[in-house]
Amino acid sequence: KLFFTDYGNAAKVERCDMDGMNRTWIVDSKIEQPTALALDLVNKYVYWVDIYLDSVEVVDYQGRKRHTIIRGRQIRHLCGLAVFESYLYTVNSDNLSILRINRYNGTDVQSLAGLDHAKEIRVYQKRTQTAVRSHACEVDPYGMPGGCSHICLLSSNYKARTCRCRTGFILGSDGRSCK
């Protein structure tokens, strides 16, 4: 799945398949300017920062179990968000500090370090990476991903795929080749 935020005409947090199909709103109320987003892949939770409401909230992948982690002036100007173990990590763009927030009780907030020009944060650790299984977009014997001549996108599950073409090309009637 692909998760993303939008605060155009109607602010929301959404998810869809990697090929853009099955687009679903998972949060569309009591939300103003959702920006940074992070996933807890193990427990299937979506965390986001709302810079208008000065809040960090969480919801499960289906849009249930929503609650606020932390809200208020203490977390103004947040950008970037990452989840690791019991904590959320974010960048305060006002004073360029990295904050650590306990994701189970938002009362434990610590400033860890200062960084010039930081706008995003990521955690790279072996335990945060899910194991890769064989999937529909694996390269075939002819060097084509999923048998697609240009682009292979996973669809509703790891066994299904959709072929797409680069700009200027159209998908052939076989659903795999681009012309």
Could you characterize the architecture of this molecule?
- One of its GO terms (molecular function) is Wnt receptor activity.
- The structure is a single chain.
- The protein is mostly beta strands and 179 residues long.
- It has 2 domains: 2-123, 6 Propeller (Neuraminidase), CATH 2.120.10.30; 135-178, Laminin (Ribbon), CATH 2.10.25.
- Helix content is 0%, strand content 40%.
- Strands 4-5-6-7 form a 4-stranded antiparallel beta sheet, with no helix packed on it. The chain has a 4-stranded antiparallel beta sheet with strand order 8-9-10-11, with no helix packed on it.
- A hairpin with a 4-residue loop joins strand 9 (87-92) and strand 10.
Show the helix and strand layout.
Elements: E1 2-6, E2 12-16, E3 24-27, E4 34-40, E5 45-50, E6 55-60, E7 67-71, E8 78-84, E9 87-92, E10 97-102, E11 109-114, E12 151-154, E13 161-164
Antiparallel strand pairs: 1-2, 2-3, 4-5, 5-6, 6-7, 8-9, 9-10, 10-11, 12-13
Q: Gap between N and C termini, in Å? A: 28 Å
Number of beta strands: 13
Low-confidence stretches: none
Q: Which homologous superfamily in CATH is the superfamily of the largest domain?
A: TolB, C-terminal domain
Specify the overall morphology. elongated
Largest sheet: 4 strands, antiparallel
CATH architecture classification name of the largest domain: 6 Propeller
Mean pLDDT over the full residue set: 89
CATH topology of the largest domain: Neuraminidase
Protein name: LRP1B protein
Pfam families: FXa_inhibition, Ldl_recept_b
LDL-receptor class B repeats: 1-43, 44-87
GO molecular function, one term: Wnt-protein binding
